[in-house]
Amino acid sequence: MATIKKRGDSYSIRVSCGYNSKGKQMIQSMTWKPEDGMTTKQIEKEVNRQAVMFEEACNKGYQSKAIKFEVFAEQWFEEYAKPNLRNTTYERMLQLRGRIYPALGHMRMDKITPRQIQAFVNSLSREGANERTGKPLAPKTIRHNLSFVSDVFSYAVKMGVVTDNPCSKVTLPKNYQAEKKIYTPEQVQKFLTLLNNEPLKYRTFFNLMIFSGFRRGEMLGLEWKDVDFENNIISVRRTSNYTCKKGTYTDTTKTKKSQRTLKFPQEIMDMLREYKDEQDMQALKCGDKWVDTDRLYTKWNGLPMQNGTPYFWLGEFCEKHDLPFYGLHSFRHLFASLLVNQGVDIVTVSGALGHSTVSTTSNIYCHMLEEAQAKVSEAVSAALDFSGNKKEPGGE
After folding, report:
1. Do 274 and 193 fall into the same domain?
2. Helices (H), 36-129
3. pTM
4. Which end of the chain has fewer beta carbons closer than 10 Å to its terminal beta carbon, N or C?
5. Are residues 160 and 202 in the same domain?
6. Are residues 285 and 329 both part of a single domain?
7. Is residue 376 part of a domain?
8. Which residues on adjacent β-strands are paired with residue 30?
9. Helix axes 366-388, 329-341, angle to 10 degrees
């Protein structure tokens, strides 16, 4: 409820708008001054009317053009981000506040210019921007920062707080993305051979990743009902994710096209059958302590495996066997590269990876596609040289 205080010949009207990310109460205020000649009764009636109008405007979050970026961004989190974004995206946005608010949070929404946002973005690509490594932030992280600011402004435009989005005029630094690190065929063969001496759980996990290109969350979200042993196919229908606030939880796939079905070699399916039998035995040993989640990859008691477990296991495995450690996502890149090098068309590759559009696949793997196309041209040239330049018997 608005509070009214008389100060000299004017009135101060204050409204509480909740709390910011640091727990500090956010107060909006306005000053109203009676016109000359108004009676006491008229003043009392009008100041109360002004207070009601101001409070209604504050409750909607559109109280004035003078609202600061941090205040409006917190309203955006509550009104838009929380009900509409995926939990992982929402959590990432929350983490970005620590860098964005000190730079822009204190500034009025209607006063922030493209040059100020450009200066902020440019600062992220300078040495020292990453406090942990002392290097510039990764191009992807810089994009996330700009996307957060842009999303807040886009919402502000819709809500009538500002007339345009200054982020539309901002240019991202050139994306000097390092070439994706992918295991060579020889390294993969060594990896698979060494894997034969490891627990069946991890043998199946990494064989499946190599033969499917599934994302980590998709792998951990697999349930036995998704495995069709009769037709040797496995379907992706959900993901298993983690945030600090929610812990491990089940979510929908990244996009609708991420829900897909792939066929697997018989050897992989036989390995999965063996693993299913092993898990069933573990459930019997645990008795009442076993939690039936139907997940393929679980803790000792049947609860879903933590998202970091395969990553840390792989790191220790690579270190033990003197193999390079490229992370879990490298197996997805490996899968894509194997398909491209075998001449599989881009539409099929995109579908197998579960990308929302073919252009996404083309953008990520453009270098691989260019190399594959070059090989095609070389093959055609070689064939033409062989047939066209072959000398006739007796010719010069």
Report:
1. yes
2. 40-60, 69-76, 82-84, 87-100, 114-124
3. 0.65
4. C
5. no
6. yes
7. no
8. 13
9. 20
Q: How many domains does the chain divide into?
A: 3
In this predicted model, what pLDDT tens digit does every residue of 34-52 receive, in sequence order? 988 899 999 999 999 888 8
Domain boundary pick from 11, 33, 60: 60
The answer to whether 172 touches 143, Cβ cutoff 8 Å, is yes
Give the separation between CA 11 and CA 21, rounded to whole angstroms.
30
Measure the CA dihedral 280/281/284/289, to 10°: -80
Does residue 339 share a domain with residue 202?
A: yes
Q: Rounded to an integer, what distance in angstroms lies between the CA atom of residue 144 and that of residue 150?
A: 10
129: containing domain = 69-169
Q: In what order do the strands lie in the sheet with 25-32?
A: 3-7, 10-19, 25-32
| Token reading at 273 | 């059958």
Closest CA to 295 of 352, 369, 239: 239
Question: Do 84 and 128 fall within a single domain?
Answer: yes
Contacts of 217 (CB under 8 A, 6+ apart): 239, 240, 241, 251, 254, 307
Q: Are residues 244 and 313 in the same domain?
A: yes
Q: What is the mean pLDDT of residues 180-188?
A: 87
Question: How many angstroms separate the Cα of 37 from the Cα of each of 11, 377, 388?
Answer: 16, 90, 104
Kindly state whether residue 176 falls inside one of the protein's structural domains: no
Residues facing residue 29 across a β-bridge: 14
Tokens of residue 268, six digits: 């992989």
pLDDT tens sequence across 191-226:
999 999 999 999 999 999 999 999 999 999 999 999
Contact of 282 with 303, CB cutoff 8 Å: no
> Is 249 within 8 Å of 242 (Cβ atoms)?
yes
